[in-house]
Amino acid sequence: MTPALLAALAEARAAKQPVVLATRLPDGAQWLLPDPAQPAALNAAAAHALEEDTSGTVKLDGTDWFLHAYTPPLRLIVVGAVHIAQALVPFASEVGFAVTVVDPRRAFASDERFPNVTVRTDWPDEAMAALGPDSRTAVVTLTHDPKLDDPALDRALRSDAFYIGALGSRRTHAARLGRLAALGHDPAALARIKGPVGLDLEAVTAPEIGLSIAAELVAARRGSPLAPARPAARAA
Amino acid sequence: MTGDVEDVLAQAAAWRDAGEQVAIATVTETWGSSPRPAGSQMAVTKSGRMAGSVSGGCIEGAVADAALRTMETGAPQLLDFGVTNERAWEVGLACGGKVKVFVEPLA
User: CB B19: neighbour CB atoms within 10 A?
Assistant: First the structure.
């Protein structure tokens, strides 16, 4: 790899642009794709690799190519700059999520409590509209406060977020589902919300709960049988 | 932090900027119970520094040796490790998987 190509790759990744580094294995020649100057078949294979988020070797016209898919990081939006969020954020970062913490209560959402993380202090509905969760985004609400959690969950349900989780006991969750139903979400949509949030580890402490949520994010991302069942499509 | 691949490439770039000779090894294909997926990377310097991994630790030594050769010759190599390959036992791919690793100079 030439230093110039490595720099171009780093630049694309910094701009959160999905790219493929294509290596012609017999001689090591490399290109960054998509590139209209390259053959359509190669660009198509690269587009497929990005879609699947999988790197691998493909044969094109009898030649082996390694297509290395560099997709932008998965995102996690955490609503509630609470103690459990402080525990969750480092775990989630370690397993590859770019994390944004949202909490309009400035005493909670301080940089001191959340070093090296993007913290937003606008209201969750505004923050969610600005962040635009997509199919590579997970949303977790942790405030226990319907004024903050509900607007975030409402927005999350209207998005393609691949995981939605809400902290709270089963009883709290049932009440929450009732309020969201009143906002027009049908049972199929509400089934997308994992509540209580996290894998059932019998977690007690904040770090244990943070770990259980991070573990469930990995399970959802990797399609593990431990992940909550995923309804086929969003209702809205 | 966005996953280890970026860290390995950033480390490789930093080493090169510091005047080191660097090679990059990338898993290009796996079969069976290989511990690291295609795309996993390791950077190696001529002075013997290593970052990242291409297996659970079984073949890193052999890959580092190949990386030194690649740094000397400037030629990339495609390495093949697997239980069907006698050499794999020598380097101890005990997991029973098979993996191909592409080694190239950063130059």
Answer: 7
Of the two residues B6 and A32, the one the predictor is more confident about is: A32
- Considering only CB atoms, B3 lies closest to which of A3, A68, A96, namely A96
CA atoms of B4 and A199, how far apart (whole Å): 24
Q: Tokens 């010759």 identify what position?
A: B73
- Name the β-bridge partners of A28: none
Q: What is the pLDDT of residues B51-75, one digit of tens each?
A: 999 987 778 899 999 999 999 999 9
First to last CA, chain B: 26
For residue A208, the distance in angstroms to the closest alpha carbon of chain B comes to: 21
Measured CA to CA, the distance from residue B22 to residue A189 in angstroms comes to 51
Chain B contact present for A105, CB below 8 A: no
Q: Which domains does chain A have, with CATH numbers?
A: 3-70 (no CATH), 74-222 (3.40.50.720)
By the CB < 8 Å criterion, does A24 face chain B? no
Query: Is B8 buried (19+), middle (13-18) or exposed (0-12) by CB count in 10 A?
Result: buried
